[in-house]
Amino acid sequence: MSSRVVKNAPYYQSQNWPGPFSISNVSTETDDIIARHIRSIDPTNCDIYGEDGFWVVDFAIIRNQLEIWERLLPRVKILYAVKTNPDPQLLEHLAKYPGKIGFDCASHGELVDILSLSVPPDDIIYANPCKAPSHIRYACNKNVKKMTFDNVAELYKIKANFPDAECVLRFKVRAPEAGDDPSEGALYELSKKYGVTIEYSREILLQAKELGLKVTGLAFHVGSGQRNVRSFGQHIEEAKRIWEIGREVGYTFTILDIGGGFMYSNFEKAAEAVNAALDQEFGDVIGRGEMEVVAEPGRFVSAPAFTLVTSVIAIREEREGVDGKRMVYLSDGMYSNINAAMWPGELTFPTVVKGKRADGPKSTLPVSSASSDSGIEIDEGDQGSVDQEGGTATLITGDLQEYSVWGPTCDCNDVVMENALLPKGIELGDWFIFKDLGAYATSMRTTFNGFRTSHKTYYINN
Ligand SMILES: Cc1ncc(COP(=O)(O)O)c(C=O)c1O
């Protein structure tokens, strides 16, 4: 079967990514765990929530990501963006690299979680330019000094609640313009919400000066899932211009925060762009040890390590009595752990495995892998090794047919894939496997409609 590359193909299956770090080469332990779990669930008599989805988290992949970062961006310290995935074991793991890995927290709650792991306050940046005053007071009590700002009202709040804070000015990245190729930009633009323009930077720095506040550096974020690696270099150049403006106002900045937005499909190229721009714009200050460079990666660290497995709880024909498109309902959907379905190109293409059969009509159809028009690319080489012997937890392969795939809530927007070619013969009790869902899935899920989201999680190689 030929692989069909469709619009907004997900970054993790890009052919540009060098093979050795492809996740299918890292471990098949995940597959064994999936098979064991599936064999243990009998939908005809399982306990309440027995058919719920579950996660497998592979720490070998996390370590691999950190090693790649260290090799390609040795001058840039990671401040992991907690919002991306605050899994407690993941945070605990990252906190074991004191001094080497710090954290980007954006709220009181995230600060509490990270400080409870005995992370030194100096290894934290409170990276939210618009904070509640009581949250600033909490940061003050805990001596978390580094915090971003991008407006004058925030400066007054900081002055009133934490006059000794080390303020970091967030500036705006260039917004996409008409005519820009949408497949070249970020999956999520952040600049319409945060950041000052270069033109306004002098004015706000003068105000900070007048208030007697310390401004110690600059921050930007090129947008999450940035496919245009030139963006990193362009914004480091812009940082240099604001750096000079800061000098004219009377500030000597000591920190440059280049934000998140890193993906692993283009990480090598992004790192090249960052290193070249750092050398050109800040080579001398970095060389003299007068400036620390930090970044706030989220997706790059956590996405590839998390696999979601979720079961088929209902199935029907789209048109009654017609042997055509089928509708599959999963125990997870857009409001819970498959919220990646909301954004084109975010969701990996699933593989489907047989479960213990639930009570229901049996399919007699032969059962291959698949394709879709929903922004998902199929990775032919990644057929999985769940079990090729047949029976429960066997990969379902063979001829394809059209499906739509839905979440469990009653909202008709709760759709995972509207048009997908999946193997024939999917039945009640079968399981869908979605790899690489470790970014913004668990952190953004809801219990809408009363569905539980707190799934069992298997951790391996920790
Ligand atoms: C301030 C800030 N830093 C870091 C991140 C993490 O971005 P990414 O997951 O693209 O690396 C985000 C994501 O929204 C963010 O808002």
TrEMBL record:
InterPro entries: Ala_racemase/Decarboxylase_C, De-COase2_N, Orn/DAP/Arg_de-COase, Orn_de-COase, PLP-binding_barrel. Residues 365-374 have a biased composition (Polar residues). The keyword Secreted does not apply. One of its GO terms (cellular component) is cytoplasm. Residues 62-303 form the Orn/DAP/Arg decarboxylase 2 N-terminal domain. It holds the Pfam family Orn_Arg_deC_N. Its cofactor is pyridoxal 5'-phosphate. Keywords: Decarboxylase, Lyase, Pyridoxal phosphate. GO terms for biological process: putrescine biosynthetic process from arginine, via ornithine. The active site is at residue 410. The modification N6-(pyridoxal phosphate)lysine is found at residue 83. GO terms for molecular function: ornithine decarboxylase activity. Residues 358-388 are annotated as: Disordered. Belongs to the Orn/Lys/Arg decarboxylase class-II family. This is Orn/DAP/Arg decarboxylase 2 N-terminal domain-containing protein. It comes from Orbilia blumenaviensis.
